[in-house]
# Entry
Amino acid sequence: MTTQPPVLEAAGLTKRFGEAVALDRLDLQVAAGETVCLLGANGAGKTTTINLFLGFLEPSAGTALVDGIEVARSPAAARRRLGYVAEVVALYPTLTGAENLDFFAQLAGERVDPGVRDAILARLRFPASAIDLPAGSYSKGMRQKLGLAIALMKQASAILLDEPLSGLDPAAANDLVAVLRETAAGGTALLISTHDIFRAKDVATRIGIMRHGQLLAMIDPATLSASELEAIYLTHMAERTE
Amino acid sequence: MSIVTAIIAKDLRELRRARRVFAMALLVLALGLTALATSYVRIAAYESDRAATNVADRATWEAQGARNPHSAAHFSKWAFKPLTAQAVLDPGIAAFSGSAVWMEAHNRNPAVARPIDDQTVILPSGDFSVAWVLQVLMPLLVAVIAAGCVARERERGTLRLMLASGVGELGLVRAKLASIGAVTLLLGGAISAIGAVAATGAGPVDPAQLVLWLIAYAAFLAIVVAVSVAVSLRARSSGQALMVLAGLWLFAIILTPRAAVSLAEYAAPAPTSEKFWADVAAAKESYPSPFADGMEAFGAKVMAQYGVTRLEDLPVSFGGLQLEEDERLGNLVYDQQFAALFAVYARQREWLRWANLVSPLPALQNISMALSGTDMPHQIAFQQQAERRRRALVTQLNTDLIENGAGADFDYLAGPQLWAEVKDFAFSPPSLGATLAQLWRDALILLIWLVAATLFALRSARHLAGEGR
# Structure
């Protein structure tokens, strides 16, 4: 457990949809500089957790805090401290990459500094020649990189990433992971939802195993070998098919 | 750059690059300009014809030579209704209502010479105008543009990213209202501004009247914007939003005004022209005419008034006095019959107001036509002023006969001097104050719609809260 004050904190966080319990009394803290990966099958509660931190869902019970701000009470204030990267980054297809970036930076109240923008894109190995092309022409890897660039330009306290590496080619995934490591090292808290246990081991300081809305275990990936992690992954996948 | 400004700039950029919407906007603009040009040409031609006909009517009147004044009163003159410069913007009922009244002795004639009769059947002029573009086409264009303003963001996931950026729900709604409002202002403003310039070029325009006309349209289009954004906020997809908005457009813009007219005609039926004039004729037959069964009593009254015992001894023309008395009695009938007819029109307008419960368009149409001088009250004012002029003209001619035709009566001939003394008809449109006095309810209705539509849009912000479901 970290000794840093938490940037993200869930206390007894619960979400029900009718009879179905999507998230069950989640207690979780993510401190500045930490990277926590939530690992689990579809329906395990990973995305629900992210949506609750973003204020896109009202909790049925418990609280989600961002920098001490209760999300349910002040969702806009909490979101201003968060970056968000979706599984498929949504962009305006007729706007160029630069225009998309500038627009979301303006929404976050950031002054657009082309120097900072270019530096972030260079870190992500985003092709410089593509930034002035319509985003509708981008590959998935380019979209994810641009999505992360949007989150990074916001200089948020924490970034929430929902399956950010899903469907990416290895080179693009490596570029993203490298930048995520640098970002965490810079003091940003990262909360990542993923199916990919090997990438999770690469990037996470802690891995939470989720199933049926419950956080079953919190693992330090440094204490496990790759094969042990693979065993956990296979067990997890097997449970999904039960 | 503020969040609202950033969203407006982004939306405008997207719209500019969405060629279909851009093309549609250009089409509406082109239609607006075409409507303006055709209205301008039509009104210029009408006014040119009216001026030429006035001159010809005056020349014919003055060239009639020696004639009995009563014969001249039957020959008589015409009252022509001028079209206001604002009719370039909204021709209202002008094309369908008579523009000329024959100011004849004994008879209050109906207004004839409807401009629609001179046009081809291809396109009714009353439908194709700047007002029609702003009332009918602009709401459709706004609906097409606004349908996706939030719903498409929701569909493609950018709404989540926008909200995740820290934009509050209410802030987003305000930004979208401003964004769609800016596009509407740009297009509607362009059409209105060119229209205002054209109207000013067509003749004298009361700036206050023009500004109020523009404010009324701004309020109407703001209502359309607010309702459209609210629907987009509530819809699951842009397709669903477009379907709902298209349905609302059909109902509120196309169907309601027409249904309201039918309802008003059903609830307060106006007599047919045939029945009305038959009633007038019957009423005129019912009073004792100084030329027939009332002649004896009238003659006795006149002789007593002048202190003579024989009509031949009167120092004035008895025939002239008979004519003037006949006019007086006939006018009482006209006053009664037309008051009843105009009361029916007023009741119909009251019934039309009920349509405002489901559409703000009838209120706007009333305001637009009234401020353009092309509504029914303006037409009634024309007919009433033409009638007053007719009565003054006939009285002037009868008076000449009475004073100068003693003994000669209908053999008395007046000359060019009398014809020159007769004034032409000049229409004085109702003042702005009088027009506004009859519009306050329509203005209030628009205001209530605007407040309700804005609240509806702002309350729809809560539909943004469930983005994670």
Chain B is about 70% helix and 0% strand. Residues 121-126 of chain B have pLDDT under 50 and may be disordered. Chain B touches chain A through 28 residues (CB under 8 Å).
